[in-house]
What does this fold into?
Amino acid sequence: MPFLAFAGTFLVYPTVLVLVGAFQDSDGAFTLENITTLFTGVVFDAFLLSIELSALTALIGAVFGALLTWAIAVGNPDGMLRRTVVAGSGVLAQFGGVPLAFAFLATVGFEGLVTKFLRDNAGIDLFAGSAWLFELPGLTLVYTFFQIPLMVIVFLPALDGLRPQWREANASLGGTSWTYWRHVGGPILTPPFLGALLLLFANAFSAYATAAALVSQGSPIVPLQIRGFLTGEVVLGQENLGKALGLGMVVVVTIAMGVNVLLQKRVAKWVRR
It folds into this structure.
């Protein structure tokens, strides 16, 4: 009961407020204007940029994270390398928000340690072309920092679930490594890989604090757009438009997580067989 009360207060109740407010105007009357605004102007561009950023960082994180996971999965299960990588991934996957943004600013910001070293010793100016750290390339780099370790945590159980008997059976029947991955390992790992990819997408799509601390001007992605509508002092009375944006995010994340659940059910059925 305490858990249900906690979840209802901080999850269900805010969701209901967002759902109701998305269909109300500033006077509380029913309207569809907030929903239609999602498909116009800068609001729609913010959704496209958020989806692009989330998909790109999810793909990069999934590929490199899967390679790192495979490297530790084939090693000693009780070895120091595996324990170190798993422990580090558990920490780095949660290392986001303001501390992560500050770490990148202190390292590769305008006056960061690496930036000054390259400029003073190699004549390389990392910001000669543009202020890329505060735009899509910079957000991609920063988001990838916590996407890769999250992939390690999520994908490692799937690799550990590959039974040695399957490879032995393939070899005893005259199969090659290609045959094993084509007909056994690949089909079994594809659903959890895609599920992890969707999880990384949802993780990046809903991230707020890191981008808020890194991007001080403008609202290029949806979470920052919501902040602007809820706390903006220039244009008032647009709180419900922010709630409509929140509803749009809920829909996108729900679709991603729904597909993830279906993939997990499928791979669980295969493993039981």
